[in-house]
Design goal:
- This protein is mainly beta.
- About 10% of the residues lie in helices and about 35% in strands.
- The chain has six helices and 37 strands.
- The strands form nine sheets. Strands 1, 4, 19, 20, 21, 24, 26, 27 and 37 form a nine-stranded mixed β-sheet that branches. Strands 9, 11, 12, 15, 16 and 17 form a six-stranded mixed β-sheet that branches.
- It is globular and about 75 Å long.
- The protein starts with a strand and ends with a strand.
């Protein structure tokens, strides 16, 4: 396999990329490790949010925030979670005497329903003055509540799709609708409707399909997969940085002195501001923490934490903007086997020695097999550290199909934000958590279940891994936004 590789420096103020070669720019890895560990204060850890990429029905890309709202990625257009573009509601004529609130008829879920890890919430809402706003309020068993904005999908139906529910009873929901009448408008609040959550038996498509559940089988995949904490710019100039979370997996490599983590490219390189992530921290097997969740204490994690030195992506991810670059949403973090570890619980400072590694398969996996059982060749597990389930390691599993020409697809998968970059295993040996890694969690749609994963077979993924295995630590710049390598092309 021939390849041509450049180390690229990206200027945030310009769309141009200029290849510059560097030498003797690396810092002592132990110095960087201390700086990164010190950076992650409790306040910064608490501010970290999922980098959850989704696509709407018009093909536009968004980042879905933890409250379900969407931020345009590379654009400022608005969208809705319904299946059709939003339709404006009629306004009442000036001087109207509307003193009644909207009429609200909840549609789904019905009172007493059992839902899975994700659910469409919908209601029919009418008013002579038109509808100004609709929100659905979810009441959790803990006693807390959260409000979500709804969109007008068709006619008088308002809806939103929510995910990340966990098993249990004691949930309820109600609708709050305000009309467009003069003054402050009239508001109607519907009665509460109860529901329960069953992420196992409540899933569509058969009992062998798992939409979103805790991984309880342990094994190698639990040991090698972990949570990634990192920062990326949130403006085009790269002057404002925010904290994010993703998932990654220690991969088997062919070289000593370093360990390799495979993840999604959108967890390594910000394709709008053209910047690599900074202050990256990897916490393997966080599911086994003795703490309450993601925190600043590496000593309460089973084997501690590691600080990667730099990331490696395909240049096609960097020169395009999501979703035009979804075919290349795979990447690697490189970890020095010396000076990158924190916490006293590991048998080795070398990451792949301490936790082991998963083999990546660059061969064509099984797809669209006629066998619909859990033992079919194309039955695939996707796993990751969902933000809403911190610190639990979650998974979905079902027969794999395709989404377009460049992505694998799991149609019922409801893993929530934070799982991006987590491994796809086919086939999975659930007795010991082993199997070939064939893809990573990449993106979903705004208005339906499902997870896409980039194809590693027949792509540049193996070549990019080769660069991650061989590029010199001393050749990669260490300044914020530049800690990475873009592989120029592989063929």
């Amino acid at each position: 396999m021939n390849k041509s590789i450049s180390i690229i420096k990206f200027f945030a103020a310009s769309a141009l990329v200029v290849p510059l070669f560097f030498s003797n720019v690396s810092a002592n890895p132990s110095d960087k490790n201390k700086r990164v560990i010190d950076h992650w204060t409790p306040e910064r850890v608490k501010s970290a949010t999922p980098r959850d990429f989704v696509i709407d029905n018009q093909g536009l890309g968004y980042i879905r925030r933890q409250d379900g709202s969407l931020i345009g990625h590379g654009h400022n257009k608005l969208t809705q979670l319904g299946s059709t573009p939003s339709k404006p509601s009629p306004m009442a004529k000036p001087g109207g005497g509307d003193n009644e609130g909207p009429t609200v008829s909840p549609i789904e879920p019905a009172n007493g329903a059992t839902i899975g890890g994700s659910q469409r919430f919908a209601a029919t809402i009418t008013d002579a003055s038109g509808i100004k706003s609709v929100s659905f309020v979810i009441n959790f068993p803990s006693g807390s509540s959260q409000s979500f904005s709804a969109s007008n999908s068709s006619g008088n139906v308002w809806e939103t799709s929510l995910s990340g529910f966990t098993d249990g009873s004691g949930y309820s929901w109600h609708v709050v609708a305000k009309d467009n009448s003069q003054g402050r408008g009239n508001t109607t609040t519907s009665p509460d409707l109860t529901f329960s959550v069953d992420t196992g038996g409540g899933n569509p498509g058969g009992s062998h399909i798992v939409a979103n559940a805790a991984w309880t089988d342990g094994g190698l995949v639990l040991q090698t997969a972990g949570r990634l904490l990192y920062e990326m710019p949130t403006n085009r100039r790269g002057t404002k940085w925010s904290a994010f979370v993703c998932s990654g997996t220690v991969a088997t490599d062919g070289i000593s002195g370093r360990s390799i983590i495979i993840t999604a490219a959108h967890c390594v390189f910000e394709d709008v501001s053209k910047s690599f992530a900074r202050n990256v921290l990897f916490i393997p097997n966080q599911d086994g923490t003795t703490g309450s969740g993601t925190d600043t204490n590496c000593s309460n994690d089973p084997v501690g934490c590691w600080t990667p030195s730099f990331g490696v992506v395909d240049v096609n991810w960097t020169t395009r903007t999501f979703p035009d670059n979804i075919a290349w949403d795979y990447a690697y973090y490189v970890v020095n086997d010396s000076g990158a570890h924190s916490g006293s619980n590991s048998s080795s400072d070398a990451l792949d020695v301490a936790v082991g590694s998963m083999n990546i398969s660059f061969q064509q996996p099984a797809i669209d097999d006629n066998d619909a059982s859990a033992s079919s060749p194309d039955f695939t597990h996707a796993l990751g550290y969902s933000f809403s389930e911190d610190p639990s390691f979650m998974y979905c599993a079902e027969d794999m199909t395709t989404e377009g020409a460049v992505n694998w697809w799991l149609s019922s998968c409801d893993l929530s934000g934070g799982s991006s970059g987590g491994p796809w295993i086919q086939p999975m040996n659930t007795a010991n958590g082993t199997g070939p890694l064939i893809s990573v969690n990449s993106w979903g749609f705004t208005n339906s279940s499902g997870m896409a994963g980039p194809k590693l077979s027949g792509t540049s993924a193996e070549c990019v891994l080769g660069e991650a295995e061989t590029v010199s630590f001393n050749s990669v710049p260490t300044s914020d936004g530049d800690e990475g390598v873009a592989v120029n092309f592989c063929n």
